[in-house]
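Course assignment 3, question 2. Fill in each field.
Student: A.L.
Task: Predict the tertiary structure for the chain below.
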Amino acid sequence: MAVELSSKSAYMIPLCPLVASCLTGSFSFFFPKATRSLRRLCAASNIFSLVIAMFISFVLVWKQASTHSIQQYLWAWIPKSGFRLKIGLLIDPLTLVMSILVTTVGIPVMVYSDSYMCHDQGYARFYAYLSLFTASMLGLVFSPNMIQIYVFWELVGMCSYLLIGFWFARSSAANACQKAFVTNRIGDFGLLLGLLGIYWITGSFDIYELCDRFLELTSNGAANPTFASTVALLLFLGPVAKSAQFPLHVWLPDAMEGPTPISALIHAATMVAAGIFLLARIFKLFSTLPTVMSTISWVGGVTTLSGATLAFAQKDLKKGLAYSTMSQLGYMVLASGIGASQSALFHLITHAYSKALSSSGSGSVIHSMEKVVGYSPDKSQNIFFMGGLRKYMPITGITFLLGTLSLCGLPPLACFWSKDQIITESWSNSPYLGLIASGTAGLTSFYTFRIYLLTFEGDFRANQINYMESYTSYPPEYVIHSWGGGQLDLLPKQTRNNFTSLDKKREELLEIANLGTVPISKRGRSYETIQFSSGRNLLYPQESNLCMVLPLIILAIPTLFGGLIEINSVQKGYGLNLLLDWLISILSLPELHKHFEKLMEILISSIPSLSVSLIGLSISLKVYGHLDKIFDTKVNEKLGGRDVENVFLVYVRNWSLNRGYIDYFYKIYFVRSVTSISKLISHLDQWIIDGFINGAGASNLFGGESIRHAKSGRISQYLFGLAVGTVVLLQLVVDFPIPPLP
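Answer field:
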């Protein structure tokens, strides 16, 4: 009875953040001044609501570990009709693990947001959106039927639209949220058609019921295979858009226009995780259709490879992490397509903590860089303005390094265990998919370690460029900005000479900062500091405060040890409730010995994939430390090097910086086509349809006006008209007599 009562209390998990969001939003709308003065209290209430949800989730997991049962609690929504629909809660291992994931990632992100958004006027509104976002995701994972999933699916999309465009006054943020919304509408429309199709086939929206019926009908041949495959692919179109799979991935890099805490939450536990969760939830449906499974695996394979190549030479710190997320999501979809849904979920969990750590670390860096280079994302997020930050931000640097090494797939960090499982199963399913998975592991190590090296190692580069931003000894009209010119002719000759040399150095450094890869030949120089008579002091980033550093430390713990929960999964053969079994088994020496043997077996079998990751990491270290190789074409021409290798590197750099030219392709062939068709329809509506209606109205108006003037109401005029008409009629009768009847 206690377990039943505890399970029924699961409705509190999505309800707590939902109530907190509604209260915060209502107070912010009706009492804006009071809310601003009590905004820390609003933040604390939102965090506390998610803590309650996390506590209930852990209690339910503890109960679930002893019973291994699946429970549903349903209430009639549409009870008296031919179409009956129930809403409620579904409690199973997948639901509870996702609930723990969302809450344990959401709480550090909320704590982190308190410091990151402390100076923002929309502080309370941000927390209202954040709680609604987590409530929508929690409602999604507890949904027992596809209709309820679709409702919360759309709520997740709406919250992402609000949060990506949180700084809507900035045109880039407004465009980014619209792009994410429209791109996801494509996938959501396919998902809606798939839901209608699956109801047509099975007559049910209940997840377990429709999966069992679909399996039975397809096995017996009662369902048309082509129609069944089409419906399954339409269902898959939803996760393709939501989880940023090729070719609907284009919204994810632009989604980084939102505040960094949202980037961490979207990349880790909410938006992109929803697609992988749906694949796992209805995996039984997809597994009966080989064509659909093959399509899913290859979409994942193409996504993971393209995401890795697109991240190669990104200058923006957050966009580099965005393409990393895209690539890792491709791993999960690939694993789902080859039948390894458990490995996909395992990688979803390990990647969530690692990416939340990396994204939060990037936010800490950006937050500190803004005080040095300003609030322009082109500067504060440009990794070529950074460098050497580990000296000034040691905690952020160490935790970011842990997240980086985890994404590289190095033991004993979390992503190593999950990624190795996917690579092993890819090779057993298809050598081509295995080659893609293994090759992408090396590319991942290269670009993730590249981001770390350019951000945290070397010398701090922003001051070299910032010194050239302005010369504060003179009035504003004499200021020279790095993005514009100045009135040098009005300055003294000696100062003009100083500025001339300064401008040359500025151009040289900005040229390096705008490269996809820093030329090693130029990076090796030590740029001297130019001192002015004003005695201006150089600014350096500082470590973030406790509210931002503490979540990084907390997220580093599962990044370090989160992968160990799945070591025993293959032996046990049971889904995802393995942490308790692992903790209990290590208390006895025989079980500990078995686990050690299993650990060594996994490490030995992972040597090939681990070697590839180490090779990628070593190449990254050499390219950004010792080798005399460059990517930029102009600098390459200056040095006289135009060999095949450099041409290839220039091509890779351009491919990455231009996003694989996919956005250009969409703009030319889809956006312009839709715009042209819309303009054509607008002209058709304006000149043909409206013209016909307006013409009819104008003709009635003119006809009425003419009749009004003709009908003056004078009897004499009417008698005159009658007489004239009679005379004309008689004249016609005389001229054209009527012939007699035969």
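Instructor remarks: The first helix runs from residue 2 to 8. The chain is about 70% helix and 0% strand.
Grade: pending
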